[in-house]
Specification:
Low-confidence stretches: none
Radius of gyration: 20 Å
Helix content: over 70%
Largest sheet: 2 strands, antiparallel
Mean pLDDT: 93
Number of helices: 15
Length: 311
């Protein structure tokens, strides 16, 4: 990870001073580096002894950071990792353009690696992430969104990069197809579980400990699983409340508290976490083809931790 961070710092350098300043604000703000860590752990799991994976892990982090910069502009977010977001400090235009710069740096790293398969996997993940963000916009404020459409969004905007991050480890290690498929399955299902928990946490008091404010998704009218479940299970009066606050975006003082009470009444948060546990179990099962090792155990522990962080 130290080598990955060195690569990140070196490759976000630019003679245009605002670029490293703005990118560094987000990259150095205490993120978990979860996605590049999965690339490194996947490489260790399969016994890869080369060095290609460190640059590719940095590439994965650049893709992720670029999407965060763009997301904060789209969502008009004020906070990121407990600090003022880049768009608040520098404005929307610089944030979008520096996000584009980081995407470009990511593609430079892919090309330097020289593997067409790696390039195909990571470039495909990048396009799928963008599709997921557009799909999320298209269902925003629509309470009739089925759970299947919501899952399509999180599979695209989150799970796709988790999947690519782990799968490329098997590619650089030239492992057989079954191991590549297993690592891809681990990443994809872990990514779904991770986003389910993230969406549940937006309605949890634990958000304060994560440097995020409670109810951001509610204030933005985002359609996430807790809202879908509470709406579908609610009475006619309760559905009218959701239509006013989410579809019409007519929100008043006390509405967030009432939303939380309705979610608690109908078990929306609990059931969202249960679904996360389901996908987390699939992710852990995918690792069963690999020999038992400390690395395999650590990957299993990471999945458990990310699901249980809701508590």
């Amino acid at each position: 990870m130290a080598r990955v961070n060195e690569t990140i710092l070196a490759r976000m350098h630019s003679p245009v001073a605002l670029i490293p300043q703005l990118a560094g604000h987000l990259i150095a703000s205490g993120g978990k580096r979860l996605r590049p860590m999965l690339t490194l752990a996947g490489a260790r799991l399969i016994g890869y002894e080369g060095t290609r994976h460190t640059k590719l892990a940095a590439c994965v982090e650049f893709i992720h950071t670029a999407t965060l910069l763009h997301d904060d502009v789209v969502d008009d977010s004020d906070l990121r990792r407990g600090k003022d977001s880049a768009n608040v400090l520098w404005g929307n235009k610089p944030s979008v353009l520096v996000g584009d710069f980081l995407f470009s740096r990511a593609f430079e790293l892919m090309v330097e690696d020289g593997s067409l398969k790696v390039l195909r996997l990571l470039s495909h993940a990048s396009s799928v992430i963008a599709e997921g963000e557009v799909l999320q916009l298209s269902i925003s404020n629509d309470l009739e969104t089925p759970e299947e459409s919501y899952l399509q969004v999180i599979e695209a905007k989150t799970a796709a990069l988790f999947e690519a991050a782990t799968q490329i480890a098997a590619v650089v290690g030239e492992r057989p197809e079954n191991e590549e498929v297993a690592l891809a399955s681990f990443g994809r299902n872990f990514g779904i579980a991770f986003q389910l928990v993230d969406d549940a946490l937006d309605y949890s008091a634990h958000q304060a400990t994560l440097g995020k404010s409670v109810g951001d998704d509610f204030r933005e009218g985002k359609i996430t699983l807790p809202v879908i479940l509470a709406y579908r299970r609610g009475s006619e009066d309760e559905r009218d409340f959701w239509k006013r606050t989410i579809e019409d975006m007519d929100q008043k003082d006390g509405d967030l508290g009432h939303a939380l009470a309705l979610m608690d009444k109908h078990g929306a948060i609990t059931d969202t976490i249960e679904r996360a546990r389901h996908y987390g179990a699939i992710a852990r099962d995918a690792l069963a083809i690999f020999q038992d090792s400390k690395t395999r155990q650590l990957l299993n522990d990471i999945v458990r931790f990310c699901v249980e962080r809701a508590y």
